[in-house]
Write a structure and sequence with these properties.
With 201 residues, the chain is low in regular secondary structure. It has one domain: Ribonuclease Inhibitor (Leucine-rich repeat, LRR (right-handed beta-alpha superhelix)), CATH 3.80.10.10. Helix content is 14%, strand content 11%. It has an 8-stranded parallel beta sheet with strand order 1-2-3-4-5-6-7-8. Strand 1, helix 3 and strand 2 form a beta-alpha-beta unit.
């Protein structure tokens, strides 16, 4: 998977984002940055690192040294062996793109809500059962991919995600009523479901 996925996301028409006074790169500029794939090498050039790809590294924990990259805005940790995400993830306030797909995550820390600049969050193929209520604070989130998880419900606070354009929930069994409830909660979001399980509570 390439950093060019950023461009794809924005071609969906997801261009509105309040970046405030922070030094965030626009999507095109970010897509043109060097992608570092070795953490030690990245640390030796810490101020120059905007994009870091630690996919397929057999990681069991998220390396805390990532916090030493002050300008990091694009991070891929997919296809590792991560069972949890540390609470300090919320300190990476410049992140715009975070991919945690294909791990063994069951939950996310509440601190993920501090990542107000994220527009893309990839959580496909994990074991996530519940999302923290603080997800509703991710005001710039535009694409949330959760295909093939164990999700039971969407927190009510996600109704505050006014920029959310795409919510990928395929591969998760929801009843017709549950699907309707999610669509009602997010009326302006394109929600992708698998066919209803036709199950009853």
């Amino acid at each position: 998977m390439s950093i060019k996925k950023i461009i794809f996301v924005f071609l969906l028409g997801l261009l509105a984002k309040d970046v405030g006074a922070q030094n965030l790169l626009d999507s095109l500029t970010l897509s043109q940055q060097k992608v570092y794939k070795d953490l030690n090498f990245a640390l030796s050039n810490a101020d120059s690192v905007f994009a870091l790809d630690l996919s397929k590294k057999k990681l069991k924990v998220v390396p805390e040294d990532i916090k030493k990259l002050p300008n990091l805005q694009w991070l891929k940790l997919e296809k590792n062996n991560l069972k949890d995400i540390p609470s300090w993830i919320g300190d990476l306030v410049n992140l715009q793109y975070l991919d945690l797909s294909n791990n063994d995550l069951v939950e996310l820390p509440a601190s993920i809500g501090k990542l107000e600049n994220i527009y893309y969050l990839g959580l496909n193929r994990n074991l996530i059962e519940n999302l923290p209520h603080e997800m509703g604070l991710m005001k710039n989130l535009q694409v949330l991919e959760m295909w093939d998880n164990e999700l039971e419900a969407i927190p009510e606070e996600m109704k505050n995600l006014h920029n959310l354009q795409v919510l990928e929930l395929r591969g998760i069994l929801f009843s017709n009523d549950e699907q309707t409830q999610i669509e009602t909660l997010l009326p302006d979001t394109k929600v992708l479901f698998s066919p209803s399980c036709n199950c009853s509570n």
